[in-house]
Amino acid sequence: MNKGLIHVYCGDGKGKTTAAVGLTVRAAGSGLKVVFFQFLKARDSGEIDVLRELKNVTVIRNDVDYGFYKRMTEEDKLQITKLHNRNLKNALQYIYEEACDLLVLDEVCAAYYYNLLDRSIIDTLIREKPEKLELVLTGRDPAPLFLEYADYVSEIKKLKHPYDQHIGARKGIEF
Predict the structure, then answer these.
(1) CA 77 to CA 147: how far, in whole Å?
(2) What averages of pLDDT result for each successive group of 10 residues across the chain (175 residues)?
(3) Are residues 155 and 11 in contact, defined by beta-carbon separation less than 8 angstroms?
(4) Tell me, which fold does domain 6-165 have in CATH?
(5) Where are the beta strands (DSSP E) in 11-156?
(6) Would you say 95 and 130 are in contact if contact means Cβ atoms under 8 Å apart?
(7) Quick check: pTM over 0.90?
């Protein structure tokens, strides 16, 4: 790759992480080195198990599941912010060592919106992204800066969802 671009997968519909996973698999299958970093997520999921098996994909995520933001205590918010910042610095190390062609920041929009990370690190990454780095940002309600710098913006809109009928997430389909 000569020039890396910035992708934003946003909206209230199902499929933002799935799109990022698909791009990760495509990139890995083409020999690119990928770092797939998930904010806010820690519970087991089928896609993470598969990504961990790919030799040129590094998965970084929390080791503690704090659940949905609205259910977090103030202490939970402090702890998850520490985890996010630690993991983010770890992910960025791959960039500095030129060991990353594609960096996926899954659910960064929500972590940024809820101030569960050091926003200045993300702002600097977006503004000063290494020339060859391909960067993917996912989640609801992306910050204006994300949209301003993005080369691709794909909005996934919910028209209908089983959650509205009180059908919970199903293993192998939603996680």
Answers:
(1) 26
(2) 93 95 98 98 91 97 93 97 97 95 98 98 98 97 98 94 84 79
(3) yes
(4) Rossmann fold (3.40.50)
(5) 34-38, 57-61, 102-106, 134-139, 152-155
(6) yes
(7) yes
